[in-house]
Design goal:
Elements: E1 3-6, H1 47-51, E2 67-68, H2 71-77, E3 86-89, E4 94-100, E5 110-116, H3 124-137, E6 146-154, E7 157-165, H4 172-176, H5 186-205, E8 211-212, E9 221-223, E10 229-231, E11 238-239, E12 248-249, E13 252-255, H6 261-266, E14 268-269, H7 271-287, H8 303-307, H9 330-343, H10 354-370, H11 379-397, H12 400-409
Parallel strand pairs: 2-6
Antiparallel strand pairs: 1-13, 3-4, 4-5, 5-7, 6-7, 8-11, 9-10, 12-14
Helix pairs in contact: 5-7, 5-10, 7-9, 9-10, 10-11, 10-12
Adenosine-5'-diphosphate is lined by residues 87-92, 95, 113, 115, 144, 164, 166-167, 170-171, 219-220, 222, 232-233.
């Protein structure tokens, strides 16, 4: 899915970068911060920023473990960027699979994905810098690991490459499409939702500074050999607002169908934009549909508009991905949809933080594992029965956490505050 850029106010240019000094880049897109922004929407500031002070990071002072590769090493790793090694091509440029050979021990050979800034790559150099800066500093099991980078300038042009750990099971978007022969089962979808929430919660609340991902979407959630989900593509990420400020003001960039209405309308970016995108993603997991799909009949092209009439009635199962063939718990799917709806609150202040989302999704994952069948399950009723039994157990064991679950389930009043927006700018 292509990225878009709408111009409300352009990001200020990044300072020129010395390619041999990647680890000393200071700006990490903080140049776009609107330092004058504050005031009325101050309360958009996430709870975590109110609880503790964020230090605004100087990346120059942080060490990275990134390896600087020579172009010839990456040519050799990818069989000279051979077409048969090509995994795909996004906004940045082509991506190749390859192997970094260990000179001493072939058992230590490393499978990698090499992203090459394409000549047509419109995300470009600035995004390359951001990606190196962010992933050079942040590390988490639910973020794709950046192994290193390559930056060489030749007479024929510049070379900018990124080297990641290889994620053999591709991206979530692929497996939700008809292209994949692998079905993502309901428990797998819940686990993916949990992994992705954990990754986002870490970016928002897990460090002494805050990162807004800004391009959260199913094609940026990659799957490793054990189907653990990890976020990738940090080229559009931004530092959160400085202390005392409610948002950063940026050019509106993102992917069609994922950006929050307030960001599209004002260019004011907060972590609540990521929370909105996460809500859209949950509906992708539930329905198996893309946020915007021009190949569908009119009326079904925009996912959020299509699902809306089915949410609060008996027809809910109509929107659940048919490829699941009924092998899911209806209660679990409805609860996930309620979490999605909270993320999609029109008012950003009403959206939960990602740590709150993580807690809610984790409870669904636990309930799912509690219902692992002891006898073969037959159909929807058996799933629902097992789901109920699992919840009973948790009621007695988990005290406070159940409160959150019941608030998710019982939050029917929420429907009145549900998103209902007519995107005036895009889609
Ligand atoms: N670390 C990785 N391991 C395996 N495949 C990857 C990795 N990074 C990207 N890819 C694949 O490369 C292709 C292009 O990815 P990308 O440049 O991120 O574009 P987009 O996110 O716009 O699809 C996608 O098919 C993606 O699944
Ligand atoms: Mg991507």
């Amino acid at each position: 899915m292509m990225c878009f850029q709408l111009s409300y106010c352009e990001d200020k240019d990044e300072p020129p970068m010395n390619p041999s000094q990647v680890s000393t880049i200071q700006s990490f897109n903080s140049g776009s911060t609107d330092n004058t922004a504050s005031g009325s929407d101050q309360s958009v500031t996430p709870r975590s920023t109110r609880l503790r002070k964020f230090r605004y990071p100087s990346f120059s002072k942080r060490s990275t473990n990134l390896k600087e590769f020579k172009l010839y090493e990456l040519k050799s790793a990818t069989n000279n960027f051979c077409i048969s090694s090509k995994l795909g091509e996004g906004g940045f440029g082509p991506v190749y699979t390859g192997t970094i050979k260990s000179q001493r021990n072939s058992a230590k050979d490393l499978s990698v994905a090499v992203k090459q800034l394409g000549k047509r790559g419109f995300q470009g150099h600035k995004e390359w810098v951001t990606e190196v800066n962010v992933l050079g500093i942040v590390q988490h099991p639910n973020l794709v690991k950046l192994v290193g980078y390559c930056s060489e300038d030749h007479e024929k042009g510049i070379q900018r490459l990124l080297v990641y750990e290889f994620m053999p099971n591709r991206c979530v978007e692929y497996h939700l499409s008809n292209r994949s022969g692998t079905l993502l089962t309901w428990p797998m979808r819940l686990k993916i939702a949990q992994d992705a929430a954990r990754g986002l919660a870490y970016l928002h609340e897990g460090m002494d500074f805050q990162i807004i991902f800004r391009d959260f979407k199913s094609s940026n959630i990659l799957l490793d050999d054990k189907w653990n989900a990890k976020l990738s593509d940090f080229g559009l990420a931004r530092l959160g607002p400085k202390e005392g400020h409610s948002h950063v003001t940026t050019a509106v960039i993102g992917t069609m169908g994922y950006s929050s209405p307030e960001y599209l309308q004002t260019g004011r970016l907060t972590i609540k934009n990521d929370v909105w995108s996460y809500g859209v993603f949950l509906y992708e997991l539930i329905t198996g549909r893309r946020p915007i799909d021009r190949n569908r009949p009119e009326g079904e092209q925009k996912l959020l508009e299509w699902v809306r009439p089915y949410l609060n009635d008996q027809n809910f199962t109509f929107i659940v991905d048919k490829r699941l063939e009924g092998k899911y718990s209806r209660r679990s799917a409805q609860k996930l949809s309620l979490i999605a709806n909270k993320c999609l609150s029109r008012d950003p202040k009403s959206r939960p933080t990602m740590s709150e989302v993580l807690e809610m999704v984790s409870q669904l994952v636990e309930a799912q594992s509690d219902m692992t069948p002891r006898t073969p399950l037959q159909g929807q009723d058996a799933f629902d029965e097992a789901m109920k039994a699992g919840e009973g157990e948790r009621t007695s064991n988990m005290g406070n956490e159940v409160k959150t679950t019941s608030s998710v389930v019982g939050d029917q009043a929420w429907f009145s505050g549900m998103w209902f927006w007519k995107p005036s700018i895009t889609c």
